[in-house]
């Protein structure tokens, strides 16, 4: 089974913390949608399996018209084998969903008609001060209104929330989580605010306009999140993802389980089982190359060490863990020996545990999973 990821590289305005690929110049939207549809045609021979998930990410896919969304879904059906009832997710921003109540009702019905069956809404916070600090295009009222409306039409909704925001104390963070719970949503994705190079947030922190993010605050807020959501029946199936049973993201789960996927649109990544490729992060060049029938991408073949490192990283981030038997059979006994050696100190510290032949992060170790994984990476062994 495969997934198709469609990157829509446009946003209304730049959030201060964001380093994804997007442009606020919407003039080329139509040409971009045509180019993405053409890329789907150009690459159809790359996917032999049936397509199980289609994911519109960005950027802001809710800036597309319903016809544009429908056209791209149709292009997938026209060129690929798609299973019955695939998961089709659309990332949407609150301000696009609530321009007026009547309009949003039409919009949700149209999304459903087009085949969208899962909405991922970029809420980030229900509080004005956080939204302003991050330069989100929506306000607190729109954050709540859009969920109220969306839940009339969709069962399968996820929202994004950000913790570790400067100035957001634990009480406000708990209130954010509670607001999400009050809507009865089956899935929440939540990320620590990170300061990426070349972002406005980075500059503001350097100039002292905004206080720096605080690791201890982020860690404390992550633990609050895990405790509250687990108490409410959510499963923290990946560090940043919490789902009620039956509502895990099929799209993201397939990435973490190492399945193949095709990513189209500028900056989109693809994985065919042995090679990773990524499209150019430049809208005009992407459109021009695709119009000329060329694929503007770079390709990298994963070495055995790369595959081992990726497996260890994703394994420690998810409830599926790192299968020690698979390490031995797929990579060899020397990799297993190395992993056992490197992981022993984390096992002693109670940050990792071995359960039923799987190496897993404990509750205490979960927030530190990326750092722990990097200590288990294979760097020089041939
Ligand atoms: S809407 Fe999303 S992709 Fe666009 S700037 Fe904000 S965080 Fe980045």
From TrEMBL:
Highest rank taxon of the organism = Bacteria
All copies of the Radical SAM core domain together span: 1-235
Q: List, alphabetically, the PROSITE patterns matched.
A: RADICAL_SAM
Main location per UniProt? cytoplasm
| Localisation | Cytoplasm
Q: Name one Pfam family in it.
A: HemN_C
InterPro entries noted in UniProt: Coproporphyrinogen-III_oxidase, Elp3/MiaA/NifB-like_rSAM, HemN_C, HemW-like, rSAM, rSAM_sf
Which UniProt keywords are given for this protein, alphabetically ordered? 4Fe-4S, Chaperone, Cytoplasm, Heme, Iron, Iron-sulfur, Metal-binding, S-adenosyl-L-methionine
NCBIfam families the UniProt entry points to? hemN_rel
Function noted in UniProt: Probably acts as a heme chaperone, transferring heme to an unknown acceptor. Binds one molecule of heme per monomer, possibly covalently. Binds 1 [4Fe-4S] cluster. The cluster is coordinated with 3 cysteines and an exchangeable S-adenosyl-L-methionine.
Q: Give the family per the record.
A: Belongs to the anaerobic coproporphyrinogen-III oxidase family. HemW subfamily.
> What's this protein's name?
Heme chaperone HemW
Upper taxonomic lineage: Bacteria, Pseudomonadati, Bacteroidota, Flavobacteriia, Flavobacteriales
